[in-house]
């Protein structure tokens, strides 16, 4: 069995979000970079769990990013995975990124392609779905449980107001969320091993971007909190009804 | 033409899809073109009534096999229908189904995608859509460069617009390919309002001290008809189910009213709720960072304040 895990580099969850060059570029100054939490905690660890059950499984990691994504992909290799591929490009366009990963996926004929449910920077949740369309594969989003039985995966996924379990034949693209696996911390052996694991760098294939970012804005700050006396909840109800008009 | 995908849960059209319909109608007016809805599966609603949300026409592919989400199947059919009617923009609600289907449709139509859109596009010079990024901590204005566009509009960001008209319904006859997944089990959370569809949300954090104390929060939610949510530590310790976790690594919501009880307001939590229209924070710690992001604050003991708030709401409702 071959598994491909898509890894994205994102700013740390506590990073200050600011912009430069006339609000056209994310300000990377002082930003700590991490593996996108959904990719790391759920997609990658689930792949590792599957390999622990079936040691013949092969895990490849793929990221689309410039050289500064290397520490991230090395950290992912320290958690697990046999080898990694970095596609040397810094695109923000989901379609361009999906095209790059699809080219790798076609070549590697993977049984399962895992992504996180979304990245915490652009929140588009689009790579998994796009990959499935380019590769003409089934796609299961928001998976929080997965069992394999031969060529069939039994996947539980979130739906509006509940959970649904479905069966799907491999190969399949799956986006992972909380519940799928338990977050792990890389150990010293993993970190040492990651240093010598193969990390291939490939140039991007020709693909045109379908979107471009024109500018960023930050939300207008709240004008300030209006404090209500804890002994006067009738007043809070009045404010919510008459001023905010939300109840 | 602007084509709006209307999706359903339990054969009922979702509120977020009606909002997407209103958005699509406004967009069509802006572009000076027609607008139609696309419904897949069997729904109990009267489809002509989609006119009240702005649809001029409803295309309906009536088949029970389309009632639950199969991204490969749905995206193929939606792309097929969009080509048939020469859609130039396809609009989705950015809900669970829309998020999963829209990117695949964009690939099939070779269309640029903006998911998580927060307003109508600026079409003065190109086609620029604003979307939320960095989990709601910023907005990005994205130019779509392709002739066909796909937009998934954030829930509760555009609102419902009432139209005084009825839509004409046309049954579509498109061959339905084989399903790519088989649903084997469905676990519905009974009687609860789905968080992402809720306009009022009551949420609890570690300040409530333990799962046994959730009664006061549930009573408040019941008095308002609100959905319930929680912070990450609460779901991590299994005080509340995972699907209630809102925040950067849980789900992101944008209700009209978000009441946070005993939640300090870590930046990761705020990222999941800061698009809420009105935020009420109840916390005994006046230094809680959440107060900075709140519209209304109550500094006090949740165990006293929350039941008092519930009584005040019930009183207001009984006299209203």
Strand-helix topology:
The complex is a heterodimer of chains A (247) and B (320).
Chain A lengths: L1 E5 L2 E3 L7 E2 L4 E2 L6 E3 L1 H17 L4 E7 L5 H10 L3 E5 L6 H15 L3 E5 L10 H9 L3 E11 L2 E8 L2 E8 L2 E5 L11 H9 L2 E4 L8 E7 L8 E2 L5 H11 L4
Parallel strand pairs in A: 1-6, 1-8, 6-7, 7-13, 8-12, 9-12
Antiparallel strand pairs in A: 2-5, 3-4, 9-10, 10-11
Chain B lengths: L1 E5 L1 E2 L2 E2 L1 H17 L3 E6 L16 E5 L9 H14 L4 E5 L2 H13 L3 E6 L10 E6 L4 E7 L4 E5 L14 E4 L9 E8 L11 E5 L10 H10 L2 E4 L1 H5 L20 E5 L5 H7 L4 E6 L12 E4 L2 H18 L1
Parallel strand pairs in B: 1-4, 1-6, 4-5, 5-11, 6-10, 7-10, 13-14, 13-15, 15-16, 16-17
Antiparallel strand pairs in B: 2-3, 8-9
Helix pairs in contact in B: 2-3, 4-7
Distance linking N and C termini of chain B: 44 Å
And the CATH topology of chain A? Rossmann fold
Strand order of the largest sheet of chain A: 11-10-9-12-8-1-6-7-13
In the CATH hierarchy, the third-tier topology of the largest domain in chain B is known as Rossmann fold
Please state the CA-atom Rg of chain A, rounded to the nearest Å: 21 Å
Shape of chain A: globular
CATH architecture of the largest domain in chain B: 3-Layer(aba) Sandwich
Specify the CATH homologous superfamily of chain A.
HUPs
Estimate what percentage of residues of chain B fall within beta strands.
25-35%
Radius of gyration of chain B: 21 Å
State the name of the first-level CATH class of chain A: Alpha Beta
Number of DSSP strand runs of chain B:
17
The largest sheet of chain A is: 9 strands, mixed
Look at the helices and sheets of chain B and give the structural class: alpha/beta
- Main β-sheet description of chain B: 7 strands, parallel
Overall shape of chain B: globular
Number of domains of chain A: 1
How would you state the average pLDDT of chain B, rounded? 94
